[in-house]
Design goal:
155 residues, mainly alpha, 6 helices, 4 strands, 12% strand, globular
């Protein structure tokens, strides 16, 4: 959370056109925000459905998806539900030092975009990303546009 996934994907989408973009948070937008077995299942079903639709549509050469995926089991479960015949899947983790992530999140909190509890939760999850079998991109000191440019060059 707070590393710049959404803004980076929006910038990368322009470079990868024709491209569709789905942010997993769009499937998780509810008031009040509730994390229960039922809402988790609902969100995962919505994501799988929408991603599957994008992947099956011939209008798009590329499909971008971002979400907080701190456990590989979440990614694996999602991939198992998608129509991946003829699809090349690349997984990336945007990485940041704790001080960079804290600065991003505190800025969002002050702007009213997040609550304070997100800072400690996000910092606690940082070590989990090192263990993921994903391609890593360190974003410290990069703007989302620069991050998108680097990802585009990695593709």
């Amino acid at each position: 959370m707070g590393v710049g996934k959404t803004t980076t994907c929006k910038a990368l989408k322009r470079r990868l056109a024709p491209c569709a973009f789905l942010d997993g948070d769009w499937c998780w937008d509810m008031e009040p925000f509730q994390v229960t077995w039922e809402t988790k299942a609902l969100v995962q079903e919505n994501i799988a459905f929408m991603l599957g639709q994008f992947l099956s549509c011939s209008a798009f050469e590329n499909v971008l998806f971002c979400w907080v995926l701190h456990q590989w089991e979440i990614t694996e479960a999602l991939l198992q539900r998608l129509p991946l015949e003829g699809v090349q899947v690349r997984t990336f983790s945007l990485m940041a030092r704790p001080e960079t992530l804290r600065a991003h999140l505190e800025k969002d909190v002050k702007a009213g975009l997040r609550t304070w509890d997100v800072v400690d939760r996000s910092l606690a999850r940082l070590p989990l990303y090192d263990a993921l079998p994903t391609e890593k991109l360190w974003v410290d000191g990069l703007t989302p546009e620069e991050t998108a440019e680097r990802l585009w060059k990695m593709l």
